[in-house]
Amino acid sequence: MSRAYYWMVVPAFVLFFLLHTVPVLQGFYYSLTDYPGYGEHAFVGIRNYVNLFKDDRVLEAYLFTFQFAIVATILTNVIALAVAVGLNARIRFQTALRGIYFIPNVLAILIVGYIFNYLFANSVPAIFGGTNLLADPDLAWIGIVIVAVWQAVAFNIVIYLAGLQTIPEDLHEAAMIDGAGRWRRFWSVVFPLIAPFFTVNMVLSAKNFLQVFDHIVALTNGGPGSATTSVSLLIYTGGFQGGEYAYQTANAIVYFVIIVLVSIFQLRILQRREVTM
Amino acid sequence: MLRRLAAPLTLCLVMAGCAGDSRVTLDFFQFKPEATETFDKLIAAFEREHPNIRVVQNHVPNAETAIRARLVRGDVPDVLALSGNSVFGELAEAGVFRDFSGYAGRQAINPAVQKVLDDLGTYRRGEVNGLPMCTAANPILYNKAIFDQHGVQPPKTWDELIAAAKRFQAAGVTPFYLTLKDAWTALPTFNSLAANLAPPDFFAGRTADRTTFAQAYPDVARRLAELFQYGQPDRFSRGYDEGNREFAQGKSAMYLQGTFAIPAIREAEPDFEIGAFTPMERLVTGVDVVITMPREPRRPRESQLFVDYLMSPEVIRAYTREQVSIPSLKDAESDDPTLQPLMPYYAAGKVTGYPDHHIPLAVGLERLVQQFLIDGDQRELLAELDSEWDKVMERRS
Amino acid sequence: MRRNWWLTALMAAGSLTVLVPLYFTVVTALKTPEELAGAGFDLPRNPAWGNFAEAWELTNYPQAALNSALITVGAVALTLLTNSLVAYAIARNFHRKLFKGLYFYFVSALFVPFPIIMLPVVKQTSLLGLDNQAGLILLYVVYGLAFNIFLYVGYIRSIPSSLEEAARVDGAGTWTVFWRVIFPLLAPMNATVGILTFLWAWNDFLLPLVVLSSPDAQTLPLVQYVFQSQFNTNHTVAFASYLMALAPVLLVYVFAQRWVISGVLRGSVKG
């Protein structure tokens, strides 16, 4: 084989190792120390990990993140699938509408968050009465779900559309001749065929929502109180602002393990279903 | 291949930043958004005196987070203006800042103020890791026009304060404009109450596990909640800058902010005079701005020149006049009309430091207080303060 | 073909959820602070174009836009040129353990959450003098490998090697074969990778926030964040600033809509 192939991959490998793998290893090492990010540090073994499990603030951040990710993933996929089916039907202005629905995907979440922040604080109460959703510790997470779903639906619609377009027209017609109703037709004919796309969307959305950060910085900054502090935000603010870098890095390692487990779990469940259907 | 490309690219980008400019650039990090313009003016004057130095002012949201991120980078700004709080103490203890104990410019500084700063933490005993530029106080600000209109005198006691709040409320005037979207805006009041109601040696006792927040802080929490009832309904939707503007527009009779908010309020051009009073025995005061530089400065000479300039009595006076704060100079007085009524507290020694400077940031005091003001669960607040304190101490040991 | 007008109306109504916030941004950016009261969906009486001038100045827009553009263009160009090359070497040697291992090595990075490496990266980039725009470009190119290798390898393996063999018979070396034969064939996947990289680099917040050290290097999303700490600025000016930050990518999208959507699509269907 040609030596050239090695020259093609070696620089990439070296850079990737240097800029990604080395930091991962360093991060792991620091999680076993009491390093505040600067100055001196000492090795403390697994103390940070032990303390993590005793910290109710960390536990609350995980609960919030999971609650948020589950609700947002389900809503995003339900809405995106519904819109995609609508866009795939015989409607006018199909291209234009598809173009509009996709817009949120190209916008920066941080800025979208600032705009919605203002809407929630001023316009929504002015129209519907009530107070600011984001100022209520029990409801603020809903505001974040709204913005996250608003943005994420755009991407998922396009994937479902691609799935729907793989379904041959005559399958629909055959089912219609059989006298199957709209719902039956959707569940027994359409959905099984787009199941792989459903899997992709579920896994990708869940992975992204579990790492939610920008939305929260722009909308609530983790508040009120610490009602909307996600794991990513806690790692960032606790590690930098609180000066507990090593401790929060241990948190990040645990978080990594959880994300991998969730992804594997999802793939297993969803793929098994694809097969049985 | 990438590396080969990256190096020249970096170089050209860095060069582009100061193309055709032979001046030394100083990175001046400052935490105080209200003071951006004042510092701009001071910097301009400095640059005129020192044509070979360019000072770039760097201010960001969440300065405490940003400065730690800079430290992680090993990239301490050339000159820093920080708040004299617990973060400053932690960083000083970690040996980030220069030792100014032999610095000649210290002669003019009020030793009592210097001590408040040094008590926050130093790298080695006897070191001086920062120079206090000015102090701020935590009174209650009020709208003199509204007070006159309703015939209310500035309250001298807690009961008078509550009576005044009730009177304004009955008259349809919002007693306090609250800005709890920014959690920290509850802290000035928290500090005034904690400094006057909790035992003075509380933090020593708490560290030694002789006392708890649950034992010593019920009164603080109760009064905090009592006072914050008298705010406008959308108090959790409004932030600090909105509060400054709304108070300036006469939307409330009083405003629970430190003196550092006065310049921002004045900038919104209120058509009334801002007054200040405290209903408490002692006035809470702290180092508002600390000037310091890295232990191992990259540009020692230029950084020192800028520090000398900022700490010169004329510049301190110019700064404090504009930013309505109290110079940290010996026998300094403020001639600002709003600050005048507070001066007797200084003269009589009835001033005390910020209690929250003893609480590590990792405890998350401001979030706990914000949560408490929403749900009113006093027992929960105190229990959380105790448990977070214990957890942070355990993680540190 | 019969068109379903009811459904069309429903879908159009649904699209308002996207359009209304954008409309709101535009009208708010054009108002004076006095006009802000109420719900804020009414048109400005007298468009306050001055908001844009003020936002331009406050955020130092030309500098931030230039930084964003430079970083984005640099990241896209270098990603296309390098990542495809690496993927080609891996795809054509996938039967070899070393290359297959390399493939999984790169792709597994997709699961590592950024917070783990955040602090070490911050340290490292500053140590290497990469805490600037060029460093950020390098990070996007290198971190992009994880997903892009995944996309490219799948695509390249579907290209029959008979084309390359023909070129080799003519005496072309591996490099020439890649640049002359394969790279042009990758056009659709290049579009996908280019668009995804563009959106990532242009809209990213956390990486520039922690990596860039000089205020002169800040990107458009970052200056919006910094904007939050400005005092006595009006919401109207803030909205003008948001709009100016969103405008470039919106414009690109309006003109290249079909491309963008199909590009993103190809990426996700492969994935």
TrEMBL record, chain A:
<feature type="transmembrane region" description="Helical">
    <location>
        <begin position="185"/>
        <end position="204"/>
    </location>
</feature>
<keyword id="KW-0472">Membrane</keyword>
<keyword id="KW-1003">Cell membrane</keyword>
<dbReference type="InterPro" id="IPR035906">
    <property type="entry name" value="MetI-like_sf"/>
</dbReference>
<keyword id="KW-0813">Transport</keyword>
<dbReference type="GO" id="GO:0055085">
    <property type="term" value="P:transmembrane transport"/>
</dbReference>
<dbReference type="InterPro" id="IPR050809">
    <property type="entry name" value="UgpAE/MalFG_permease"/>
</dbReference>
<feature type="domain" description="ABC transmembrane type-1">
    <location>
        <begin position="62"/>
        <end position="266"/>
    </location>
</feature>
<dbReference type="Pfam" id="PF00528">
    <property type="entry name" value="BPD_transp_1"/>
</dbReference>
<feature type="transmembrane region" description="Helical">
    <location>
        <begin position="99"/>
        <end position="120"/>
    </location>
</feature>
<feature type="transmembrane region" description="Helical">
    <location>
        <begin position="252"/>
        <end position="270"/>
    </location>
</feature>
<protein>
    <submittedName>
        <fullName>Raffinose/stachyose/melibiose transport system permease protein</fullName>
    </submittedName>
</protein>
<keyword id="KW-0812">Transmembrane</keyword>
<keyword id="KW-1133">Transmembrane helix</keyword>
<feature type="transmembrane region" description="Helical">
    <location>
        <begin position="61"/>
        <end position="87"/>
    </location>
</feature>
TrEMBL record, chain B:
<keyword id="KW-0564">Palmitate</keyword>
<dbReference type="Pfam" id="PF01547">
    <property type="entry name" value="SBP_bac_1"/>
</dbReference>
<keyword id="KW-1003">Cell membrane</keyword>
<dbReference type="InterPro" id="IPR006059">
    <property type="entry name" value="SBP"/>
</dbReference>
<keyword id="KW-0449">Lipoprotein</keyword>
<feature type="signal peptide">
    <location>
        <begin position="1"/>
        <end position="19"/>
    </location>
</feature>
<keyword id="KW-0472">Membrane</keyword>
<dbReference type="InterPro" id="IPR050490">
    <property type="entry name" value="Bact_solute-bd_prot1"/>
</dbReference>
<keyword id="KW-0732">Signal</keyword>
<protein>
    <submittedName>
        <fullName>Raffinose/stachyose/melibiose transport system substrate-binding protein</fullName>
    </submittedName>
</protein>
TrEMBL record, chain C:
<comment type="similarity">
    <text>Belongs to the binding-protein-dependent transport system permease family.</text>
</comment>
<feature type="domain" description="ABC transmembrane type-1">
    <location>
        <begin position="65"/>
        <end position="256"/>
    </location>
</feature>
<keyword id="KW-1133">Transmembrane helix</keyword>
<keyword id="KW-0472">Membrane</keyword>
<keyword id="KW-1003">Cell membrane</keyword>
<dbReference type="InterPro" id="IPR000515">
    <property type="entry name" value="MetI-like"/>
</dbReference>
<dbReference type="InterPro" id="IPR035906">
    <property type="entry name" value="MetI-like_sf"/>
</dbReference>
<feature type="transmembrane region" description="Helical">
    <location>
        <begin position="69"/>
        <end position="90"/>
    </location>
</feature>
<keyword id="KW-0812">Transmembrane</keyword>
<feature type="transmembrane region" description="Helical">
    <location>
        <begin position="102"/>
        <end position="122"/>
    </location>
</feature>
<dbReference type="Pfam" id="PF00528">
    <property type="entry name" value="BPD_transp_1"/>
</dbReference>
<feature type="transmembrane region" description="Helical">
    <location>
        <begin position="134"/>
        <end position="156"/>
    </location>
</feature>
<protein>
    <submittedName>
        <fullName>Raffinose/stachyose/melibiose transport system permease protein</fullName>
    </submittedName>
</protein>
<keyword id="KW-0813">Transport</keyword>
<dbReference type="GO" id="GO:0055085">
    <property type="term" value="P:transmembrane transport"/>
</dbReference>
